[in-house]
Design a protein that fits this description.
The protein is α/β, with parallel strands linked by helices. About 35% of the residues lie in helices and about 25% in strands. The strands form 2 sheets. The chain has a 7-stranded mixed beta sheet with strand order 3-2-1-8-9-11-10, sandwiched between helices.
Length: about 230
């Protein structure tokens, strides 16, 4: 377990969030440089002819980059449950033959869940919600299990997986335990949304994510405060 996910660090991070200190500190970090180190590490993991999963593809920024890196013999499977984001994703990736799009999200079981479309321009903050009253007006989206998709030959077994799902990352990983134990999977890049996880009553989920990856044979590093890069070491 890294220092970022020990109980004391999580408590301090939650306290900082409660008093607005985290946002204050992040205001001194430029948005362009914050994820730069992670982005470079992420893209370096994708090799020619790889099978890549883009879980939480949004409108396709990474999907397009992955398609170029994997090449014509590689494949990119992109999952995006938001209908608004998916329409833009399909438009942006139109004509790219090694990309395959799926209008649903991934989780630990097949289900229909409530979903809130992000208010930001790109819809990047769209997220699965826990139980919400039907009269709330929120959309409902379909969730599938990664292991079951591979078992049914709906998608290829990945060599690399990118996950950005706004607080649903533990469910995604829990639904792909068999994939995690496959030697075909070499690396994962995951954005860990500490605040959203804490709001769901899952403040210790980052610990569980690291533990799950470690037991599957991955070494985890944190290029920045919110991203895990997991590389298979055994």
């Amino acid at each position: 377990m890294s220092w970022r996910t020990n109980s004391l660090a999580l408590s301090l991070r939650n306290m900082g969030r409660r008093f607005g200190l985290n946002s204050f500190l992040m205001s001194f970090v430029s948005s362009s440089s914050y994820e730069d180190k992670f982005n470079k590490a992420l893209l370096s993991c994708v090799k020619r002819n790889d099978v890549v999963w883009d879980v939480g593809a949004n409108i396709g920024h990474y999907t397009s980059l992955f398609a170029d890196l994997a090449g014509s013999q590689g494949k990119v499977f992109a999952f995006e449950p938001s209908s608004q984001n998916y329409d833009r994703l399909a438009l942006n990736l139109k004509g790219i033959e090694n990309v395959f799009l799926f209008p649903y999200g991934l989780g630990d079981k097949e289900e229909t869940v409530f979903f809130k479309q992000g208010d930001d321009e790109l819809g990047a903050t769209s997220q699965v919600l826990d139980v919400v009253a039907l009269e709330s007006g929120y959309d409902q989206v379909e969730i599938r299990c990664g292991d079951q998709l591979v078992e049914s030959d709906s998608v290829g077994l990945p060599n690399f997986v990118k996950i950005d799902v706004e607080g649903f990352e533990l469910e995604v990983l829990s639904g792909m335990r068999e994939i995690l134990n496959s030697q075909e999977l070499k690396a994962l890049g995951i954005e860990v949304h500490f605040g959203l996880l804490a709001a769901r009553g899952m403040a210790h989920a980052p610990q569980e994510i690291e533990s799950l990856l470690g037991k599957a044979g991955f070494s985890c590093s944190w290029p920045d405060s919110s991203h895990i890069l997991a590389i298979r070491t055994k």
